[in-house]
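hey all, quick one before standup. I had two proteins in the batch that finished overnight and I want to keep them in one place so we stop losing track of which output belongs to which input. First protein below, input sequence then structure tokens straight from the run.
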Amino acid sequence: MVDNHTWKGNGKCMECGAKEIDGLSCYEMFQFPLVWEHNATDLYALHFWLVSCYMNQHPSNYTEEGYNLLVNLFTEAYDNEWPTDYILQKNRELVSKINKITNPLPNNKRKRISRNWSMTIEDIYLCGEEHAIEKIKKWKEQVRIDLEK
């Protein structure tokens, strides 16, 4: 399991840049839409995009090989408009070909690089459950654009 404790500086996540809101780190804010998914199947249909957007913005949680796999899967799925079942199939195939996905280093020993992301989980959390679907769709678009920078 990935150690997702967020390292903050100046009230922001050191990797994604999300501001601490209501005393919550980006990882803690990420838990909210995961719960909201249980109330709406149309929101759950975006689970891959929700999780992969968050993961893309926190590369220190993954090995270099694991992170590259994630970015490549995300961009291929987005660019080719793959359906979720095909994305999950491809993910299983790709994951079976690499040794380690998650970063084995303790959280406090990981190298973190700050990056300016157009949107973060902060935007999803702040919009609330009512607007989560439209915001997650926008987030995946913005992450795709940001990955090109």
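OK second protein, same deal, sequence then tokens:
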Amino acid sequence: MAEAPSFFASVYALVAQIPPGFVASYGQLARMLGAPRAARQVGWAMRCCPDELPWQRVIREDGTIAGGEYAPLRRAMLEAEGVPFTQDGRVAIDRCRWQPGEAGLV
């Protein structure tokens, strides 16, 4: 019998599917994994995220960008992908939230 993937591996598998120009929140990913109260654990997973994953596309539910010293880099990367921002500097998440299965998305 195969061993179930770790929670972190499950997070990474989802993050790998987020297309350019879209974002997902920590809580959204937790809900998609069947663990609606695990947003913080998603955050922990993202702190150890492999470099090849689109880590910049995972943001807070209110559209703010986490990342401490990397927040300006993350914003620049999202802007380069065409992610819209509000006047107060948050991602306009209602306009670019990743919804798997909608509009031809994975």
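Flagging for whoever picks this up: The helical segments are 7-15, 26-32, 39-47, 71-80, 93-96. Strands lie at 24-25, 58-59.
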